[in-house]
Amino acid sequence: MENKNFNYKTVNDIKDFDADNWADEKWVALTLNIKPNTLRKQRSKNINFLPYYKFGGRIRYNKLEVYDAMKKRRRASND
User: How far, in whole angstroms, is CA 3 from its chain's centroid?
Assistant: First the structure.
């Protein structure tokens, strides 16, 4: 059964300052098919290729920046 109350957004629908544009590490981990702990380790070792922001002690990722970083890594690996 389809949930009609949920708005699915594509990359083109996301605005820069839209509240729905911010995600936690769980969303990023699911999107990249990795564990949240991997993101934590990358942040602690300063080897994270994804820009992140800290709001009141919580880590948040900008979805547009995550998509951009994924595109750049894909292009770099194809070169």
Answer: 24
Angstrom distance (rounded) from CA 59 to CA 73: 22
Place of tokens 């990359």: 11
For the chain, the straight-line distance linking the first and the last C-alpha, in angstroms and rounded, comes to 43
Query: Does residue 38 register a pLDDT over 90?
Result: yes
Q: Go through 31-50 and write b for each residue having 16 or more CB atoms within 10 A of its CB, e for each that does not.
A: eeeeeeeebeeeeeeeeeeb
pTM confidence score: 0.69
Residue 22: its H or E element: strand 22-23
- As a whole number of angstroms, the distance between CA 61 and CA 53 comes to 6
